[in-house]
Specification:
The protein is an alpha+beta fold. Helices cover about 30% and strands about 25% of the residues. The strands form seven sheets. Strands 2, 3, 17, 26, 27, 28 and 29 form a seven-stranded antiparallel beta sheet that branches. Strands 1, 4, 5, 6, 7 and 8 form a six-stranded antiparallel beta sheet that branches. Strands 21-23-14-12-9-22 form a six-stranded mixed beta sheet. α4 runs parallel beside α9.
Amino acid sequence: MILANNISHYINGQDLGEPRDWQGLEIVIDWLNEHQSAKLNITDVEFVHKANKYLQERILNGLNGGVGIFEGEPYQIKIGNPQNPTYTFDGYLDFTDETTFVGNESVICSLKRKKGKDWLNDIADGFSFAYLYDQGVITDNDFIKIPYIINYVPDGLQIIVLSMSIFMMAKEIATTIQAISDSIADITDASTPVVGVSVGLGAGVVTAWDIGNFIMVGLKVLARIAYVIAITIALIEMIETLFEEILPKKREYLGMKYRTMFEKSCSHLNLSFQSSIPELDWIYIPQKDRKGGDDGETGYPTNSGSMYTFGDFIRVMKQKFNADYRIINNTFIFERLDFFEYTGNYQIPDVLQDQSKLLTNVKFNTNEIVSNYNIDFRFDTQDQNTLDDQNGRVFQAITSPINTVNEDLTSLKGLTEISLPMSLAKTKTKLNRVEKVAKTLGGIVDTLTGIFGNGTNFQSQIENRIGCMVISSHFLSVGKIVDMNGSKLHFNQRDRINAKLLFDKYHYINSFAEINGKHNQFWRYPATRVPMSLDEFQSLLENNSGVYNGEEFIIETLKYYPAERYGVIEYRVKRKYTNNLKIEFI
């Protein structure tokens, strides 16, 4: 049996004695619901004697220059040899959570695990991406520019307007060229000398020029050149206005990669980040209430969206990628759920739950089956494209029996709705009819202005629309997610980001019907008391999975009593109990 001195308590590195009623120490791990490392079974602890005096002074030292009540105090519990403990609870006393002074006799504080689930919920929800930007953790260099254009459905009126513009320009150009040609002829005529014979003594051949006519023709040429310049400027302005109304110029939104959002948030918390999920390189464009590039536009989620705080972001990412996280060795690890289910060293002993009848109780995880599994991206009411183009937005997997005798008695049920708070983007892959006409018009203007140097580039402006995100408004009511190819969007955007892809890569492991060799059928074994050494307990802290008699098991919950060296476990074994299931994709 572990003696009292095998369990040591340290307040900020000092051994100030045990808290009151500490003999019944119980360490609880709930992998099924919490997916986290061990925690203690109590949240409040009562300190007396030296620890009480130290903590009462520490809590109130904010009155005389100390950090005071709003900063916790490090707290450790070590089991085993303090120099080389088998288990260390690394936590802190949170004085802001119902701290109570019982006169001068004792103080009751809230105990939380450092960098645990409680810590993450408290801290991760305590700061926003806007705060990280204000603090310089996120900078403008972390933003990615996403090109976009406003697209309209081509109609006859636009074609007529553009065609008339081309006709008017062609007519004006032809007329101007003819006028310039006539002016050149006039200049030639005016500069041709008149040959005559002088009169009087010494008569001979003389040459004369019509100076007045030459000046008049020169003025006409200058006037026509001025007219050409003026009409060219007017035409450029007209085309610019026309393009802006019918084909607004390309703009750029600011966005951020999911991975960058993780890395910057973890950096703020003095954590490193690790993940092998490639889709974290997708770029999130937050909601927009102004044009791309306008003053005040931001590339991080704002308080009008669903991912304002780091905590919000983690919850959305867990849902999207069917993932979870662990904080191991000061590294925030984010992976698909089954990443953490690797074979451990612990072996479950042969113990019968019902000793009186020498029987083992077993249940099935039928309560976890989902017959209808939906994943969907949102509509953006500001963007007609998300209403018109449904490709990839919704995916549904239906699980049903292969064989039935009485359909009225079929008990498959359950709905999982993965509703993602972002919309899909659409990439421009080719020019429409309006743009093709506009490209011709722009080419004419570019040629005309090129005559005078510093020509326009309307034609390339149209061509550069290819590869941009197309939206029907400058404003976004929900964020968008895009996959970039350099400075442009991938052409096959909806093939690269869609609801089915998320199911095929991340959510299929939840299916009870077997997919790719994986299924989610388990035999569940209720609370079982088993002998457990400190070494065995330590091995479970590292990994709660293993293989026993050739079958994979996962321990769901563990209550460990170090003083008594036993544990109470609930576990499940991955073992099929039916093959009569099929899954259909819609």
